[in-house]
Amino acid sequence: MSEYNQEVWGIILAGGEGKRLQLFIQARYGVDTPKQYCTFTGTRSMLRHTIDRAEMLIPPERLLTLVSSQHFQYINDQLDDRPSGTIIVQPIRRETGPAILYPLLHVYQRDPEAIVCLFPSDHFVLNEQTFMEHIEFSSEFVAGHPQSIILLGIKSRHPEGEYGWIVTKEHIVDGAKRVYNITRFVEKPDAFTAWQLHQSGSLWNTMVVISKAKTLLNAFKMFSPTLYQAFWEIRNVLGTSRETPVVEEVFSRISSANFSHSILEKNPGGLQTVTVRGAYWSDWGDAARIQSDIKHFCAPRQGETLPMPLSSMSEATVLVPKEHESL
Fold first, then answer.
1. How many CB atoms lie within 10 A of CB 236?
2. What is the pTM (predicted TM-score) of this model?
3. 134 near 280, Cβ under 8 Å?
4. What is the chain's mean pLDDT, rounded?
5. In this structure, which CATH number among 3.40.50.1970, 3.90.550.10, 2.60.40.1220, 3.40.30.10 belongs to the domain 8-324?
6. What distance in Å separates the CA atoms of residue 285 and residue 124, rounded to the nearest whole number?
7. Contacts of residue 251, Cβ cutoff 8 Å, sequence gap at least 6
């Protein structure tokens, strides 16, 4: 991978509550910590794993982290080393639409020509360098095709109903990594639809998005105009002493909006995908996935069993079983 790309910015989404995992975390570890701040493997939280992965491509001062004001105790503990101006605080959780649009405007205000990469903070990735090489390739493609919005896709392993699905048509770029046009985006399908999508070779959506900042803003403007206008009107206070009270007022009056439903499902003709090969990816929003991946990929220290308490996790040895060697 090349040195930092000075056109590329990143946004890490770390403002969620992770309610589906709360009972698992409480029962297993005896704490009530949001999942992105938990250390399930090694010595780093999921959020710190995401930061380190993103910084393979993006310099720290161009990597923004969207957090929730309700999580200050964890923010102070885990993010006190981040560069000034890179922690963006949402006052109220309003789903992924506002959580993306708010820091996206920060990026656009600082660099109108920026290419931006969106990173969820609760994903498990093996072969991280290979994974990030796909993001680097996608950012280079976007630089030459500024109207493109790229979703990283993963070849499905089973009919998963909790993921978004990408249906592709002909590829538009040949080579070791191909870019495909998207014909349809399906968010969290029912069981039968998920089975059909899996059988047809459709892809899982990783929710890693690569686009020009202004192109993504235009998608919000077209498909979610009320939400877009609410934030566009406050762009001039970003980075000033007025930002906090003004943003609190905006979040208090807007409705929740899911990015996948509000933007991706409405805009398949404006989307492309790059299929990740040579890396393993899993969304750790589900206890069964966490336990399965830890069992298959993370070897404990001598005499320990997995999963271990958060406070005693060492940097685990990562193993790739034979069935995944050709991913």
1. 12
2. 0.90
3. no
4. 88
5. 3.90.550.10
6. 10
7. 90, 91, 92, 94, 98
